[in-house]
Amino acid sequence: MGSAFDQDVRALIDSCQADWLPSSFLGRLPRPALDAFQAAGTLVRFRPKEILITEDDAETDVFLLLSSCVKVTAALDADGHALLAIRVGGDIVGEIAATDGGRRVATVRACGREPVYAIRLAQADFHREASAYPDVLLRLSGAIGRKLRTATRRRVDYSGQPPLIRLARVLVELADDYGQPLGGKSIMIGVDLTKLELGTLVGVTQTTAERALRTMREQGLIDTRGRRPIVRDAEAMRALARPLSQTDK
């Protein structure tokens, strides 16, 4: 029998599991491996805006996100930060530094309205437990591969697509991954996002992002009056995001 604390942690994990995407790192993990990570790690809690990982730090801990969401940002040459990605319960962060031993390439900050609960593992503990389960190494490769694929696709978009289409694609991704249906065709993206952050996600200035969003509003595609964007017509937004080569097929 485990301690009362261990049982409480397992109960927390059980309560969070229903919200994990099936495609996420934890969503695909065998329960024995998840229990092993829980036993080897430490349960940590972060209030909104608290930092999990700091860019350029040398520490190499891994965080298995159980709940809520975080923003992944990188400092720009000028003042400010670029929003690189959003991660939610079920995702893993910090695995790149834990894999190659390099410095942190981004800052990870809690951004949900609820606290972030996570299992924190030292690099050596993560490697030891991951090596004991072949499925974990496969899932880890998959998680890194999906992040690389997304980064590559956005890099291609930067050079080949206008801002309106780039922003539409990101909004479709966000709605698919973090959307909360509101009825009819409307989906609310369940993360607080500023227009500047939406712009940095697709490599444009806030002014350019605002111009693209204005066009979308005029077409009845989006509502940006609140902190959480609402996609008013998901299918029409998807059509806007689709390349002409795919539309013509």
Automatic annotation (TrEMBL):
One of its GO terms (molecular function) is DNA-binding transcription factor activity. This is Crp/Fnr family transcriptional regulator. Keywords: DNA-binding, Transcription, Transcription regulation. PROSITE patterns: CNMP_BINDING_3 (PS50042), HTH_CRP_2 (PS51063). One of its GO terms (cellular component) is cytosol. It comes from the Bacteria. Gene3D superfamilies: Jelly Rolls, Winged helix-like DNA-binding domain superfamily/Winged helix DNA-binding domain. Pfam families: cNMP_binding, HTH_Crp_2. Residues 161-235 form the HTH crp-type domain. Residues 25-128 form the Cyclic nucleotide-binding domain.
